[in-house]
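Hi team, as promised in this morning's meeting, here are the two structures we talked about. I've kept the exact order from the run log so nobody has to guess. The first one is mostly here for context; it's the second one we should focus on when we meet again. Sequence first, then the predicted structure tokens.
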Amino acid sequence: MTQTRTHALHFPKPEKTWRFLAATALCLYIIFAGALLLLSKHMLDPAHAPIGYDFSAYYEAAALARDGNAVAAYDDKQMIAAEHARFPGAETRLPWNYPPLFTLLLLPLSYLPYLGAWLVWSVLLMGGHAWLMRQLRAAQVPLLLFPGAMLNIFLGANGLLSALFIGGGVQLLRKRPHLAGLLFALACFKPHLALLIPLLLLFGREYRALTAMLAGGLVLIAATIALFGLEPWTAFLLKAIQGMTVAHTSSSDWQRVPTLFTLVQVLGGAPELAMGLHGMAGLIVAVLAAWLWRRSDDPSSRAAILAAGALIVTPYARVYDLALLVFPIASGAPASYHVGLVHAVDCPLFFMGDVAFCARADFAFRDDPARPMAARRQTVARPYPRAISGLNLLFPWQAGPEILRPQTGAHTMTDTDAALARKIAETAGTLLLTLRNSGLVAGKALGAAGDALSHEFMMAALKAARPEDAILSEEGARDSARLSASRVWIVDPLDGTREFSEGRSDFAVHVALTERGEARTGAVALPGLEVTYCTGKPVALAARASGAPRIVISRTRPPAEAETTAKAIGGTLIPMGSAGAKAMAVLRGEAEIYLHSGGQYEWDSCAPAAVAAAAGLHVSRIDGSPLIYNQADPLLPDLLICRKEFAQPVLKAVASYRP
């Protein structure tokens, strides 16, 4: 009798599986880190963002405080200008919204070079994270490589610091309550994540830790006032109040916050409904967390309760804050009586941001179902990287909340192109102002440096964001390949170089996109006036002033037809620099007509023409013919931009001119 041999399936032991996954994750992190360093130039990653992106803002705020100007970090314009000055050509726009307590913690790092400071920051955070994992006595290596932790390292974020203060405080609560209270006080560098701590300490009758937390907080506040003065606290509180107002708006920044408050609004709920539902959920979770905290003595369980509860109670959190979920994950053993709460909390938090994003995308698609899918996809802002997504871990520079990062591939949506044009024009303007205000160069040298700096930045930004499009720049080499391209960016990095070098405000930055010779999209930044005009959000045309029509003309090359035209329509001539400044003067109601025939090129008029046409102004050549761009010879010598009621009188006057 033959025996039938059966083959049983053998699964690897859990320990081997954990080791394999941990080794795989470690290899991916090493590969990514190596690629990042190899592809980075001048401390900028391939997307032109500083290495350790979020940390660049921390370092800059600390550097301002070190130089005795801590309050400047709360002025967004000064803060962003300082960031651009430290990282020329960087795609960064990070305001400073943290209390001075965080500035105090960062201050020692400001005495190191940036790269050294970031490395010290990363090593300290990973060291603290390793200590916490050892205290938890869980799967130390896998949790050490927890994606939420590594995401913080690569982005230079502070989620691990919150986890260290909160988790460390819980671990030390029984043996060293006073030290635990100090750690809880330090956790208040993010006040919105520390809301539950006093409540849980009170309900748990941890009076010594609560007293130490309050006393430590007062000492830290006093230290910041002694070092930085009272002004930073005043500025922070004013920004915090403004932030509460922003919370009730439809800002896209808030649509990427993984909280119930944001999810309700993205799904179409009113801000009042969102706040009400979030408040009820927060109250329920706070009460439940206090009850569970009171019944538990296990530090791991308490850390899980506090971390999960903090992320639900707050209406504001970021993807890097989800590093706190390492505590529910570490303590989620079946024997834990609170496992139901843990799994009911951490799963929705991981996916709430994705649900909100999908809902937002669905609403955007419903708005115009006839549009092509590729085009509709561009209307939706990219979500944050998921805390457990391997792809986003490998490429974390692609996910940033505060700025429009370059995206590769073909783009057909005008709104998306307009947003990019505006961002590039504004950033170039900020770089120019920073250069001029530095006082390092002056006169013609300043003009030449401004042209070069703005050009290099704009070329890098456009090539990263729209690699398939052609570019024509005043400062760049002529490439005949653009003549066969359907989409060509025409830019003037610094229009009004003379005015810029003389310290005047009538200079501009032009960024425009032409499609088959037509100026479809454009942005004109006037850095000296701190304003940018864009086709994506056309401004309402200012009301016409009473009196004689005003004609803005070149201050260095006034058109020969100007005197004849002024006499024919009873107008007055106003000299002004920069084609962009003159065109926008008509838009703002400071003039009614902009007339030029003294010689121009396509980059001088393209962006101003696009913005003016989008606002409802008449735009043409001085013989009434349309402006056609991307020609073999970029010379486009004349231009008329005016209110429509003056178009025919001006064209008639110009036509009658005889030299």
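And here is the second protein, the one for discussion:
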Amino acid sequence: MDWHTRLTRALKAATEGAREAGTWVRQELPRLQPAEIREKGPRDFVTRLDKGAEKILIDRIKKDFPQDAILSEETAGAIPAGGDLWVMDPIDGTNNLIHRYPHYCIAVAYLAGGRPEVAAVYDPVHDEMFTCKRSEGVWVNGAPMAVSTISDAAKAFVVSGLPAKCRDELPEWLEKFGRISSAVMTTRKCGSAVLDLAYVACGRFDGYWEPRLSPWDMAAGALLVEAAGGVVTDDIGRPWTLTASGILAANADLHPQLLKLVSCMSDPAPPVSLPPEPWWGVTVDNVERLAELEEALTGFRVPLITRIVFDGDKNAAYYRKPLEVLRKKTWIMGEIWDSFDFKKCSVEMYKERTREFHATVGDLVDVWEIGNEVNGEWAGEIQDIVDKVSYAGQYLKDKKAATALTLFYNPDSFSKPECEMFRWVDERVKQDLKDNSDYVLLSYYQDQCNDYWPDWNQVFREVAKRFPGKKLGFGEVGTAKGDKEAFLKRYYPLKVDVPGYMGGYFWWFFNQDMLPKTRPLWQTLHDVIAP
């Protein structure tokens, strides 16, 4: 079926399943007995009603979508990679239900390529159905809804949740919740993350924060808030994904104020989680057109990971504000210094630049590119290059940061034999640099290599032999003069059957080809990412 038809049928299945399950729960609750309540973990309960509601939901989804994967709280396993996925919480707020506290719901979300596309959240106590189909609308009982317009934290009504299963985190939560409570008008802790998020989406609450949640606690609610005009990130400001450990949701004015309250720290923290795979990357070599960039990096089926090329003539402070803006929309890979300017800096300059950028924007960068096209013939003296990237790798790993090393794949396209990629690696890359590189990426420009199309399975198998256990992908692709649309369609859907391969691509000409967002190549990129 086509995409529009699939989403329409998905919304219908989610809505009908949530309503049927919620109606059954409401009818059965008066008959729930203590013997039908089981503690499956510390302060974590399951009842006969959770199990019954789950069966109703699964049966309804499987009726229309028998091949789709399902992730549900009561039968949870590993998060499936990519594809079509339903994420559901048969009863979010089970503790409330057990105590007859009227704040719980049934939640269903449909995801494609890791991004929520459809959501239905049903509150059986108040007979309220919150629904959303991305890009088309978000409603409560059929009426459109939107996040609040409160712009001052001092006037905000903010809700949170206590990490009940992780009481060792209670002191930190109390400290942050205390900062929020002191800064806003009033706070609540209601006990149902999804329903709280639905209330943010319709403007009853102004913001929601919780640092420790499961995917089924967030998926449907995150989409509702985003579609209602809000901003949704993880609890330290990275783009929200299904693998996020927590969530912060509010309108665009309040979100940065709340983020400052819950992420206040003297030292930049290491990433809580790495960008989810597969990676869908683009390269931004200039941040001056910030508003256009912010717009162009949104609207894809999944969050992108964006390489920001840190200009050798700019200091770290210059990038602070642009990264704060863009990081709400995309994961960030920071390139310390581009290969074409590599030889302009000494080893000591590169060391100082690594320290400066980590100290200044380390809390805004998810992956650090410690070296770009390091075997490029233009990049300078080989030993200087090795010394630069080896220092950056060790320094950033000591800071518990994630790192990437980008090689230049140049089959039969080199004038200096010592710069051939595999020879360069074999002769120059020592074990410490391998240990300090989490990702190994290949830059490849086909029209600079006699239009050669390699056997990529074989190429990446050879890379994997030299970097065992590392994540592999493309670090740059593009063309300045060739058929750009054809190149996009060739590389981004490329399948490489090698363990550890996770995509990347990082189209180099994003600014030139896709700003503003109305340019045709933006739509081409949209269509080939997470199809």
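Starting points for discussion:
The longest strand covers residues 84-92.
The chain has a mean pLDDT of 90.
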